Amino acid sequence: MSSQFGAAPIKLSEYPRRPEIGRIGRQIRVKANFFEVLRLPDANVYHYDADISPTVPSSLNRRIFEHFVKSESGGILGGIKPVYDGIYLFSIEYSLFILIDKILIKGRKNLYTIKQFPFGDAITHQITLPENLAASNSKKPPRTFTIKLKKVAEKNLEEAIRFVQGKCATSSNIMSAIGALDVLINQEPSMKFTTVGRRAFYTPENSSTLSGGAEVWQGYWQSLRPGQGKFFINFDTSATAFYEAGNVATLIAKILGCKLEELRTGFTLNQRLKVEKTLKHLKFRVTHRGVNFQRRFKIKKLSENSTQETHFSKGMILK
Residues of the signal sequence (predicted)? Predict the structure, then answer.
C-alpha cells in the first residue's frame, strides 16, 4: 500500500524538566545506594572495530585477544600495559579502553580507547596461541589467528558531562559514552571476582553450603547512572548459587547424597541421568599434564560405561 504523505522525520524530544524542589515540611536526610563519581577521564574516546579469524567460540575468542594484547603491549600497541575486565558473556562485542597506559577488554568486536593506537587507522596481525590456551574440543584447533583492528570513529566525553548538567539533550553519542563509562567502572571488580552477566560480581569467601553440591556466594551488583549534575554508581548486594569447586567424584557423591566409596559400585540408570543433568555444560580442567597444560573442557554427557569398560584405538575420536 502506497502512502499519500511523505515520510516525516522523527524528532527526539528532550526529557521533561523536574519541578522545583519542595519547600513545605521538614527536611530529612535519606541514605540511598548511590555513590557519586568524583572524576571522569578528560579525553576523547576512539572507537575501533576488531575482527578475529577464523571464527571461534566467544570464550576462545577472548583468550586469543588477551594473548595478543599481552604479547604485543610492548610492540604494535605502543608499550601499553594491559588490564582486563574478564567479562566475555555479556554480548557479541569486544570493548577496549585505554586509560593512560592501561587496556580494558570486554566482549567481542568493538574497541574503545582514550589514547589513539600508534599504528594509525588500521592494522592486521597474526598471532599463534599456546597449546594450554587453545580450544578444548575433540578436533585439533587452529593455532594461528588473524586479528584486524580498524579505527571507526572518535567520540567526546564532554557531551555526556554536559548532559547530566542539563546543558544539552540526549543523543546517540551520549548514550555510547554512558555505556562506555559503565564498562569502565566494572573493570576492577571483574578482574578480582567471578562475574555473572554484565554487572554482578561474586566471591566464594564466606559462602554457605547448600544440598546437592551447591553453595551460595555473596556478591554485589553495580551500574553507572546519570543523575542531577553528576554521574552515580548504583550499588546493591546480591547472592547466587554455584556448584562447589573441587574433585568431580566428590561433587558427584554430594549430588547423589552418598559416600564417595559407594561410587565404586557404579551408577543406576536414574543416578546416571541425575548426575548427567546436573553436570551438563559445567566446565572442568584436566590435571594429569601438569600445571602448564590444564586445558578446560565442557561436559556434554556421561558415558554409560566405566573407564574399565571403555576402549578405543589410537587416533579414534570417542563420541
Answer: none
The Cα–Cα gap between 132 and 150 comes to: 29
Distances (CA, A) of 206 to 105, 217, 222: 29, 7, 20
173: cell is 553519542
Domain end, chosen from 128, 156, 184, is at 156
Residue 202 structural domain = 158-243
Going by the DSSP 8-state scheme, the letter that residue 264 receives in this structure is G
Q: How many domains does the chain have?
A: 3
Q: Are residues 128 and 177 in the same domain?
A: no
Between 70 and 90, whose confidence is greater? 70
Q: Do 164 and 151 fall into the same domain? A: no
Return the bridge partners of 36, or none. 232
Q: What is the pTM of this model?
A: 0.62
Grid coordinates in use for 132? 594450554
In angstroms, the CA 88 to CA 186 distance is 13
Q: Which of 10-14, 36-40, 87-91, 291-295 has the highest mean pLDDT?
A: 36-40
Q: How far is CA 262 from CA 209, 252, 258, 288, 301, in A?
A: 22, 11, 7, 24, 21
CB 113 within 8 A of CB 48: yes
Question: Does residue 144 belong to any structural domain of this protein?
Answer: yes
pLDDT, residue 232, reads 92
Question: Could you tell me if 73 and 79 are in contact, meaning their C-beta atoms sit under 8 angstroms apart?
Answer: yes
Residue indicated by cell numbers 559416600: 259
Collapse the DSSP code of 153 into the 3-class scheme (helix H, G, I; strand E, B; otherwise coil) and give the result: strand
20 CB neighbour count, 10 Å cutoff: 6
Residue 89, pLDDT score:
26
Encode 184-250 in three state secondary structure: HHCHHHHHHCEEECCCEEEEEEEEEECCCCEEEEEEEEEEEEECCCCEEEEEEEEEEEEECCCCHHH
Residue 135 lies in a domain: yes
Helices 269-279 & 248-256 angle (0-180, nearest 10)? 120
Return the pLDDT at 153. Answer: 76
